[in-house]
Amino acid sequence: MTYSIAAHDPDAQQWGVAVQSKFLSVGSVVPWAEPHVGAIATQAYANPRYGPDGLALMRDGLSAKEVVERLTAADDGRNQRQLGVVDAHGGSASWTGPECNEWAGHRTGPGYAAQGNILVSGETVDALAETFESSTGSLAERLLDCLVAAQAAGGDRRGQQSASLLVVERDGGYGKLSDTLVDLRVEDHIRPIDELKRLYTLHDRLFGRTPRERWLPLEGDLLAEVRTRLDRLGFADLDAWAGVANLEERVDGDDAIDPVVLEALREDSSD
Asked: What is the per-residue pLDDT across 5-40, written as a single tens digit (0 to 9) for each?
């Protein structure tokens, strides 16, 4: 019913899972991840306990291969399960039970585990793997690209319904007080991947990170413009407006402004 990819970005020290399925709220079952531990996708006739139990095993130092072996060996229903695991070091392993509905299978490589069942063909899983291997950008962007490519290659034989994107990074989430960098779900939609991409664009606008060297100095004409626009909106300073606009994560001091914040302020205060 599902295709997914669990993956690791060693440079960013991020772990994540992207998934699409003809199944309601697939994000509530399939994806699991913990920074510096690993990522897990559990699907087909899914065993949700594979998620927390697998992360616990990796927390104790087991590799992705060992986790797959340990979980499936202890599960009488393993022949109907599908599982993909990436560990803290990017090691990967997958399991496709022999009783999973056709087409079912998986591919693994450095930093990723791709798998799917009830697919049009194996080209869907090939697209997941090949897109991840060749893509660039953030882990979230690469995982979204994988879903798009997999759907274009055939996808779930029964169609589309829900999709999910989960990415974790130590202290990478809101206020640097959360490990959840991205956690977006489309529960029921005619084109869930398109909707997931739309939500991610919104998420990145609010919570993304523009490199500081690309921020604009708040001085001269630009400073005067920002003050005028804030006055027009009735705010004393940029912090006050950003808190209402949900852009507080993109404001840091009053000496420079994130271009994304400037664009949003201009839109909000336009005549």
From this structure: 999 999 999 999 999 999 999 999 999 999 999 999
Q: CB-based contacts of 65: which residues, under 8 Å, 6+ apart?
A: 91, 93
Condensed to tens digits (0 to 9), the pLDDT of residues 224-267 reads 999 999 999 999 999 999 999 999 999 999 999 999 999 999 99
**Cα gap 85→115, rounded to integer Å:** 10
pLDDT tens digits, residue range 138-176? 999 999 999 999 999 998 888 999 999 999 999 999 999
Instruction: Name which of 166, 134, 210 is nearest 55 in CA terms.
Output: 166
Cα of 219 vs its chain's centroid, Å: 37
Instruction: Record the tokens describing residue 9, joined without a space.
Output: 């970005």
- CA-based nearest residue to 33, from 19, 21, 44, 45: 19
Helices (H), the chain: 50-59, 64-73, 123-134, 139-152, 192-207, 220-233, 238-245, 259-268
Closest CA to 20 of 118, 134, 94, 101: 118
Domain 2-207 has CATH 3.50.30.40: no
Distance CA 243, CA 265 (A): 12
Alpha-carbon gap, residue 42 to 257, rounded angstroms:
42
Taking alpha carbons only, the member of 161, 169, 136 closest to residue 19 is 161
Q: Which residues contact 85 (CB under 8 A, 6 or more apart)?
A: 6, 38, 39, 40, 41, 54, 58, 64, 67, 68, 92, 93, 94, 113
Q: So where are the chain's domains?
A: 2-207, 212-268
175: three-class secondary structure by DSSP: helix
